[in-house]
Amino acid sequence: MELYLNKTSPYARVARICAIEKQLGNDVNLIWVDPWADDKALLNANPNGKIPVLVTNEGEAISESLLIASYLDGLSSTNSLLRTPDYTDVLALSGLSQGLTDAAFTTVINRKHFGKESDSTVLGVRRQNAITRCLQRLEDMVNTDVMRSDINLGQIITAVALSYIDFRLPELQWGSDQPLLADWAARFSERGSVKETAFA
Ligand SMILES: N[C@@H](CCC(=O)N[C@@H](CS)C(=O)NCC(=O)O)C(=O)O
């Protein structure tokens, strides 16, 4: 298999962590690309021009990190990431934290293209509010089974979203308002898959 990715994409990092946690790391050839540079091979695999894209051994190109995670989860029985006893809770946590990633990522991209003033637009303010609410919801969930159980997709997306905020929006300093979540994230960051895929 081939995984198109870069070192700063939270979505690509989720896909890569899933592959590692499923013990499929050695079966995935990493193709490093700049998705903003109209890379020909990437556009061929995914006309949307976005990473991640996973090209299966049969040549099928799967985009969207959640779909890639679902595909990888079905390939090996190691670490069930989705089909756990908490299945619906895993889906709920995954959606919540994917939304957090979307709000953070869109904030970063809008700042890059339209300046920091983009935070003050109607949409910018909605994004900031969404980030604040999602962080608090996650803080309230730290002691629930889905956050405390063996690794699952929701935990992976949550950990990557928080790490992405630290990487790109460090001024948010969310750890002071969400101390339980900060402890949870620190523990999760000890995993080999998380260390190996650090943003750079
Ligand atoms: N919903 C997609 C989002 C993917 C995405 O937005 N990737 C960014 C990099 S973090 C990208 O490739 N952007 C290039 C572009 O928008 O042209 C997923 O979950 O995979």
TrEMBL record:
Which InterPro entries does the UniProt entry name for this protein? Answer: Glutathione-S-Trfase_C_sf, Glutathione_S-Trfase_N, GST_Omega/HSP26, Thioredoxin-like_sf
Q: Origin, by domain of life?
A: Bacteria
Q: Which Pfam families match?
A: GST_N_2 (PF13409)
Q: Which PROSITE patterns match?
A: GST_NTER (PS50404)
GST N-terminal domain segment(s): 1-80
This chain belongs to which protein, by name? Answer: Glutathione S-transferase N-terminal domain-containing protein
State the organism named in the record: Marinobacter lacisalsi
